[in-house]
Design goal:
511 residues; Bact_transf; alpha/beta; 7-stranded mixed sheet; 18 helices; 47% helix; two-stranded antiparallel sheet; transmembrane helix; Undecaprenyl-P_galact_Ptfrase; Rossmann fold; 11 strands; transferase; undecaprenyl-phosphate glucose phosphotransferase activity; single chain
Length: 511
Amino acid sequence: MARISVPVSATRLAPPSQVHSAPIRAGVKSSNHPTEPQNVRKVGWEYLWQSIRTSLPLVVIDLMALALAITVSRQLVWLLGGAAGMNLSAMFPPIALGFVIVGAELGLYPGIQLSPVEEFRRLIVAVACMFAVWTVAVLIVQDTFDVQGWFLALSFALCATTLVMARSVARRVLGSREWWGFPTLVCGDDTRAIEVYEWLRTSPHVGLRPVGVIADPSSLELDGSEPWFLGDWSSVRSHAVDGKAYWALVIPSEEAQSDITDEVDSCLEAVPHVQLISELSGLPDHWGGRRPVDGLDGIHIQQNLMLPGKRLTKRLIDLVVATSALLVLMPVLVAIALAVKLTSRGPIFYGHSRLGLDGRGFKAWKFRTMVENADTKLDQYLEAHPELREEWEKDQKLKWDPRITVVGRVFRKLSLDELPQLWNVLLGEMSLVGPRPIVTSEIEKYGDCFGLYTSVKPGITGLWQVSGRNNTTYDERVQLDEYYVRNWSPWLDIYLMLRTIRTVLFAEGAY
């Protein structure tokens, strides 16, 4: 099973520097799956609470299994006349915490939709990491390594065995509880969708609780009275919200194996976790046969910026970096302000109306780089040079803009004029990294992607700024924004911020 976050129609994950040339455009709606452009759904406390309810019992059971296994190992060592050579009461709590952190990173919590083989592998890796940290901790705390090696080996074997057995029992018990697991939509215009629905309904230990089936009634010859049938593809969002569904399993139609965009796109704006079931099997087949087992083979698309924890992480990064940058750059900001004031008439700052989160307007602040009455001067210039009007209407930019002052041209080249937007970041109107802020007249150019664009805060920098900036077309810019929203991660933000430094220093694509 592959767990990656990709644009739906991408044939591969292109490096960020090459995204503008990759076929990543999504958002094209098929007539069979009508949807209205709207904001991407954001999930909040209900999702967090469901994640806690699903994860916490497994955390408790795992820690109990570890404590039991290590205690039994210690007792066996004493019975055989040996000594473990360590204080378990002091060492176990931090080691157990490390196990939980590693387990969460490996996806053991909440541990949804893992095959027995994959869950076994991840448990062994987590235990191995725990024992590696355990060994290093003993070496640091004690001058000599007096822990018996066979005690560690026995503990490792018992921990691995006990964890696997405890997990198996826990899943069976928890699966019988209605509050455990995640409500799930099963989507597909193929009879395999009904089979997957029935399998999930009879396999609650997987942790995906089927709400019902989304399908084109004519494709499955349904009359609408089936108890498991929810509606057609246009109703995905309403059923996801009403049913509090956070997962969707999409089964591609056999007639559309070459293009799965239409099969997946309706779910992406409504469900944070979309699992595209492998077209080779339809149902899980990890054992090499066709019988269902505990795992669904396919590609997992996770909409990170739908999730409250991910959004909180992004906000914390914004606050820490923006505050630090304002403090460090204060002398530079003062120097730029003086240069603006002493070289041209007008205010130091310029606030331009832009569209932000959920389509709300805000003032994006910059150091003023243009002369007074800039709009009037632009109209006069375009009237005198009609051959440049097409260039302006195409990208809302001119290679040589007569409105820009001498020092303003330098500031724009180095992107110094945008430093006041750090204040917008602190106010929560912008993010350090995100799509380029746009004006109302640009909405039409985003088309069906506008709802996706307004699902996040615009950024001071972003994928567009490090991928050619003004040397890219507007369509490529839209694709870059879409790619960013679909594939956001903290590491992507950090990478783009570092790339921005190089882009600014070499003034790549700036004018």
